[in-house]
Specification:
This protein is of the alpha/beta class. Helix content is 24%, strand content 16%. The protein has 12 helices and 21 strands. The protein has helices spanning 3-14, 60-67, 82-91, 120-126, 239-252, 287-309, 329-337, 354-357, 383-392, 408-411, 455-461, 490-505, and strands at 34-40, 70-72, 75-76, 130-136, 154-156, 159-161, 184-189, 199-200, 203-204, 210-211, 229-230, 261-266, 316-322, 358-359, 361-364, 373-375, 379-380, 424-427, 433-437, 440-443, 471-474. The strands form 5 sheets. It has a 10-stranded mixed β-sheet with strand order 9-8-7-4-12-1-13-15-2-16, with helices on both faces. The chain has a 4-stranded antiparallel β-sheet with strand order 18-19-20-21, covered by helices on one side. Strands 14-3-17 form a 3-stranded mixed β-sheet. A hairpin with a 2-residue loop joins strand 8 and strand 9.
C-alpha cells in the first residue's frame, strides 16, 4: 500500500461519528470538529516552558495544552518574519512564490493574497464552517480605495507618513480578511503600524483623528512603531486584552447555530512594543518580555476556558504555533535574565538559522490526538491547509496549497515509513534560502544571519565565522549549528542545492494530486 492509499484509509477510519458538545440530545451527530488556530507573534522556541527546562517564563496554559495533546519538536514557520508566514498558513503555499519575495507588508500596504487563490477559511466555509479572524492581519488591504485623491504623505523627523485626514474613514476598506474567506474580522491590523484603531470586518470602528502618541512606556526594547493616524485614547497595552475579550465573546456566539467554526486568533504579542498589562507586570523572572509572554499564555487560557465553558472543548481541534523566532531583544534578555528565548538554537527572527524559524507547535484534538504525545516529524506551517482539508473531507486541486502536506496520520499516530515531507524550504526577508531534508540543512548563502549578533554572544557560545559558498549542518548531531560540513560533505550540499533549485523553479514542492 503506498502512502496516498494508506492516507485515505486512515482518513476514512478516523471519522467515526462523534457527538459535538454544542448539540442538544436531539441534535444530529457530526464528524466535523471546530477549529481554533492560535498564532503567537515573535515567540521563540525556548519561550514555551514545557520544552525549555531553563525557561524563566511560566506558560501553564500552553503547557497544559501540550500535555492534553501532541507537541511537535521540529516545527517550522515558512519564514523568519511575520507576513510571509501568515500568507503561507492561510494558503498552504510558500510565500516567496507570490509577492513576498523579500520583506513584509508595510504600513498601508496592498493585499498580498491573490484574488483567485483559495484560502484556508474559504475552503472551510465551503464545508459549512463559520469563520472568524480576530487579531493581527498583516497581509494588506486596498487602502487606496479610501485614500483621498488630493493628499500626499508628509515627512517629519526623517520619516514619511500620512496624517489622519488623508483617508475617508467612513468608507469600506476592500481586500482584507472578509474578502479572503472570513465571515468576521476584528482587530487592529498590525499593532505597531497605522492606523491605530479598531477595524471590524471592513470598516474602522472609531475614525483616527490624531497622530500617533506612544503610550504607555514599553517594558523592554523600543516601540518599533511607525508614525501615522491614531484614534483618540488609543493605548497599545489595551490591544491584547481587547482581542482576547472579542475572541471569547465570538466563541460564546457559536453555541446556537449548529455549524462548526474556525477561529483564527493571530496574537499581537509578544511582538514589540512590549507592553504587558499592569496586572501581569513583575510576574516572571524574564523582565518585561517575560511578563508579556506570561500574559500571552493567559490569553491562550482564556480561549481554552471559553471552549470548556461553552461545551465546545471536546469537539474542537486547537492548534498553537508562532510566526517566527524571537526578536533581537532576546540577546539582551539572555544576558540580563539568563532566559534563552531561542533555547539552544542558533539565531533569531529573520535568520536562516534554526532559531529564526523553528517554532513551538501544539495540537489538541480530544478523542483523536493522544494526550501527552510528542512528535519529532518535521512539519511546516504550510501543512495546515492540506491537513485540515483531509480532516473536513475537502478535495484540494493542483492549483491550491501547492506546498502543503497532510499530517493527519501523524496526529493520529498512524504514520509509518519515511517522513511525510520530502524536504522543507526556509526563507529569509533578504531573499536568501535554505532547505532541510532529514537530518541535514543546507543554507544557500555565506551566512545564516540577518539579525545582527552581538560579539559577546558569539564569543560566549563559541560560534566562529566560516568562509564557504554555502553552509551545511547535520542537525541530529549539531542542532546548534556549530560545524559547517560544506567542504566535508560536498555531495550532500550539491544534492540539497539541486533540490532547492527544483522547488524554486517549479510551481509546487508536493507531488501532483490524483
Amino acid at each position: 500500500m503506498n502512502r496516498r492509499e494508506f492516507h485515505k484509509t486512515v482518513l476514512a477510519a478516523s471519522f467515526l461519528p462523534v457527538i459535538s458538545c454544542r448539540c442538544q440530545s436531539d441534535s444530529p451527530l457530526t464528524a466535523l470538529p471546530n477549529i481554533v488556530i492560535l498564532l503567537a507573534d515573535d515567540m521563540g522556541y525556548g519561550d514555551l516552558a514545557c520544552q525549555n527546562a531553563e525557561s524563566k517564563i511560566p506558560t501553564p496554559n500552553l503547557d497544559a495544552l501540550a500535555q492534553s495533546g501532541m507537541r511537535f519538536t521540529d516545527a517550522h514557520s515558512s519564514s523568519g518574519v511575520c507576513s510571509p508566514t501568515r500568507y503561507s498558513l492561510l494558503t498552504g503555499r510558500y510565500h516567496w512564490r507570490g509577492k513576498l519575495k523579500t520583506g513584509i507588508v508595510n504600513a498601508f500596504g496592498d493585499s498580498v493574497i491573490e484574488p483567485d487563490r483559495i484560502t484556508l477559511p474559504e475552503m472551510l466555509r465551503q464545508k459549512g464552517y463559520n469563520t472568524a479572524c480576530i487579531g493581527k492581519w498583516h497581509l494588506g488591504w486596498n487602502w487606496r480605495a479610501i485614500m483621498k485623491s488630493d493628499v500626499s504623505p508628509v515627512r517629519q523627523g526623517g520619516k514619511t507618513f500620512y496624517l489622519p485626514d488623508a483617508f475617508d474613514w467612513s468608507q469600506r476598506i476592500p481586500d482584507g480578511p472578509i474578502d479572503h474567506g472570513f465571515d468576521y474580522y476584528f482587530g487592529d491590523d498590525v499593532p505597531n503600524f497605522p492606523p491605530y484603531t479598531w477595524i471590524e470586518n471592513d470598516r474602522v470602528v472609531i475614525a483616527p483623528s490624531l497622530p500617533l502618541k506612544e503610550a504607555p512606556p514599553t517594558r523592554e526594547g523600543s516601540w518599533e512603531t511607525r508614525p501615522g493616524p491614531m484614534s483618540e485614547g488609543w493605548r497599545l497595552d489595551a490591544v491584547m486584552p481587547k482581542l482576547t475579550e472579542k475572541a471569547v465573546e465570538w466563541i460564546g456566539q457559536q453555541t446556537n447555530g449548529g455549524k462548526p467554526f474556525l477561529l483564527y486568533f493571530p496574537w499581537t504579542s509578544p511582538h514589540a512594543p512590549i507592553v504587558p498589562a499592569p496586572e501581569f507586570q513583575g510576574k516572571t523572572k524574564a523582565g518585561g518580555y517575560g511578563d508579556y509572554m506570561y500574559q500571552s499564555d493567559w490569553s491562550a487560557g482564556q480561549i481554552l476556558k471559553a471552549l470548556q465553558d461553552n461545551g465546545l472543548a471536546d469537539n474542537t481541534l486547537v492548534i498553537f504555533t508562532s510566526d517566527n523566532g524571537p526578536e533581537h531583544y532576546a540577546y539582551d534578555r539572555y544576558q540580563n535574565f539568563d532566559h534563552a528565548s531561542m533555547d539552544s538554537l542558533r539565531g533569531l527572527k529573520r535568520d536562516l538559522w534554526e532559531g529564526g524559524h523553528r517554532v513551538p507547535f501544539i495540537v489538541r484534538w480530544p478523542g483523536r490526538v493522544r494526550p501527552g504525545s510528542i512528535s519529532d516529524e518535521t512539519i511546516c506551517v504550510t501543512d495546515l491547509m492540506a491537513t485540515l482539508a483531509d480532516i473536513v473531507g475537502y478535495s484540494l486541486d493542483n492549483q491550491t496549497a501547492e506546498d502543503s502536506y497532510s499530517f493527519l496520520p501523524v496526529f493520529l499516530e498512524k504514520s509509518s515509513g519515511p517522513p511525510i515531507r520530502e524536504a522543507t524550504v526556509h526563507h529569509a526577508p533578504n531573499g536568501q534560502f535554505a532547505i532541510r531534508q532529514g537530518d541535514w540543512v543546507y543554507i544557500d548563502w555565506k551566512n545564516g544571519n540577518v539579525t545582527r549578533v552581538p560579539d559577546w554572544f558569539d564569543q560566549e557560545k563559541g560560534y566562529s565565522k566560516t568562509e564557504a559558498p554555502g553552509l551545511l549542518y547535520n542537525l541530529k548531531n549539531d542542532l546548534s549549528e556549530y560545524q559547517n560540513l560544506y567542504h566535508e560533505q560536498p555531495e550532500i550540499a550539491a544534492r540539497l542545492k539541486n533540490l532547492l533549485e527544483k522547488y524554486r523553479s517549479q510551481s509546487r514542492s508536493i507531488p501532483l494530486r490524483d
